[in-house]
Amino acid sequence: MKKISLVLVCFFIIVSSLKADNVRSVKDFNFDWKFNLGDTPKAKSTDFNDQDWRELKLPHDWSIEQSYTTENTAGSTGFLPTGIGWYRKTFSIDASQQNKLFHIEFDGIFSNAEVWINGHYLGKRPYGYSAFTYELTKYLNFGGENVIAVKADNANYANSRWYTGSGIYRNVRLVSTSKIYVPQFGAWVETPQVSQKQAKVKVSSIVKNTFGKAQKLKLKVAIKDKSGKLIASGSKKLTVAAVDTSSISLTIANPELWNLEQTNQYTAEVQVFAGKELKDKYDVDFGIRSVRFDANKGFFLNEKNIKLKGVCLHHDAGAVGGIFIRDVWKRRLENLKDIGVNAIRMSHNPADPGLLKLCDEMGFVVINEALDEWRRNKNKWITSRFAKDMRPELITGYGDIYEEWAERDVKDMVRNSRNHPSIIMWSMGNEIEWTYSYYYKMEKSNQGLGNQVLMEETGDGKDELKETAEEIEKWIKEIDPNRLVTTGGVLPRAGNITGYFDVPDVMGYNYRADDYDTDHKNYPNRIIYGSENWGTYQEWKDAVDREFISGIFIWTGIAYLGESGPYPWKGLDISLLDFCGYYTPRGHFFKTLWSDKPYTYLATKHAKKAQWIQKGDKWIDNRVTGWLDKWLFEDVEQTWNYETGDSVFVEVYSNAPQVELFINQKSYGVKNPDDFEDHIVKYLVPYAEGEIKAVGLNESKKESEYQIKTAKWVSKLVLKADRTDMKANGYDVVHVQAYIQTKSGELVPDKEMQIEFDVEGEGVNIGVDNGWDRNVQKHKSNYIVTHKGRAMLLVQSTRKAGAIKISARAGEMKSNQIEIKTEL
User: Fold this and answer.
1) Which CATH superfamily is domain 196-286 in?
2) Where does the record place the DUF4982 domain (predicted)?
3) What was the pLDDT predicted at 22?
4) What homologous superfamily does CATH list for 297-433+463-572?
5) pLDDT digits (tens, 9 = 90+) for 577-612
6) Measured between alpha carbons, how far is 789 from 669 in angstroms, rounded to an integer?
């Protein structure tokens, strides 16, 4: 009896191990890489000695680690060096794994990535925002060492209009499967019919068979909710010779819909069987929701009409550059959410998968964008943002590779991210009209002359731009026929003449609110929204006052590197959040427009420096307004530090019906935000040391308030962390904010002091910053000079459990010590 039992146990162990051996394994491949900045062609060889190379963890952006400089850099990309870098990783695979297939998956390398495994060339991927994969199997040394080498060539330092980052700046995975498997991007979920009572769910999968002869297989799909409960299932028999695509349709009763408040998601478990043997298991997270745009009523999510309170976002994140770090972006998105943002336009490239996953989890709707350039390149500039100093030899961009790579890059964007419920539209591109000079000529002409210009420029009236848009839209819909396609257009009158503005399902208008009414009247079936907008009250009001405008997307949500100059102006802070993720005055203002919570904020400026002057009861904008000024916001500050006798300009933002301003409890009057054209209440008051306070009033009752106290004398340096514990996983990050304060704890906003941070234990300093768009101190440093009385340190955990002790000093002044626990 014991012998029989032992045999049975052994049998089940063997069967279990065989099944486990054939099921997909996804290994985090980010750790234990070596890196060298500089072109090292011999590094592709297995016998190359990389002993002296730097050891690091991916994702990695070598540009952000360097010093800002004007030598071989460009204002268009933020005055940070680029170059060529090489990565190498040595790894082993057990000899028992020879019956499996191995693929390496890259989420993005900037740029012109070339990959070798054990000296064998695998290929090149020029576009830095594309995810891609290579099979490694036939080149691997099972039971021995393997070397993968990656070259990233970002030597052309002016190849973009914004900061790109350099290197393997997105995640890498090593995936092993059986010889029958689902490839990368190979399973997807569609929800063609959605209601509160019932949802039709269609799960599709590509199955590859590499045995060389047809196999009889079974495809099984199980839908599970967030608790793991089985909701629906189905199966289908297949005969696969090499590649087959099959779908299974299921019905879910009373689905939990994904929306902005409740981000319900399901998991589709896709399983492939040969007989009773499980060959592969591929999980897809998805959400059930309906999306609809109406030419007269705007945007609907689950048939609920919603105004898009959107922002445009570039992919860089201040001190950490182009790499995606979940905790860094979660904090940033939390602050945007607090302001009231509900929509994000990824500008102007496909987003990192991790950022899209955060949007799924946190409740943002997303426009994922493919390209900033099509067949023709846009100008890039060296020392300033005005593109007058462009060097001809540096005019490069996506146009150089469009013919060879565009179809693959666009389709892979859709394949890679189509399962994200947050994505509501695919954007083909942004302001492509600027690359066709005749568009600008047509924009300035009337209808008849515009057609004449088109004929003169093209000879036959055929517009390459329109034809390219039709081509890209076709590619997108081949992969995802369900979502709508859009683009950000900037010359609507010209686009109406050529028909370009009729190509997308939904047409985005960049800074062209003046054309909303005319185009809605002349093109009543066109769906219109503000795809890129100045961050002003008028831009929002133009959307609110028009039911047919779905919403706006402010340029930008968060300050970004690039499109800058002259040095040391490294980037654009025309945003709701600065480089550190701190609220800007504009961010506080839009919180009063977009948040339902009562909110009041005030900021000040010496009257002599203010753009606004008071004449009687009227306020007049005293700027000599140019095109750039439309993006700028009055640079008021959170300070009440002036001299006796100074006249101070005060701005109050509030969503209360009225506001009242007090200085040391003395009232300076009640005013109504609606009485000001820009919805910003303004005061001109005499300075008096003490406290200034704004109160939001609703029927004479206090609804909200904000105050600032005089704070001129620095007494202490205070550190505050946004968490007290982290996982010892090499990924988690704590944001440590340093404040210069008075004895009573008030921020001293107009003192600049150099802070030195000290980090001990199981944590790594990954960057310092102060949020200023003219801060060109090196981010990979222990030192930082404060701006507006504050600075920030980012510390990432190691993979060892323990504690991290963080402190700082400024001269002889020492801070409190923060301790962060890390656990496995």
Assistant:
1) Immunoglobulins (2.60.40.10)
2) 646-701
3) 55
4) Glycosidases (3.20.20.80)
5) 999 999 999 999 999 999 999 999 999 999 998 888
6) 30
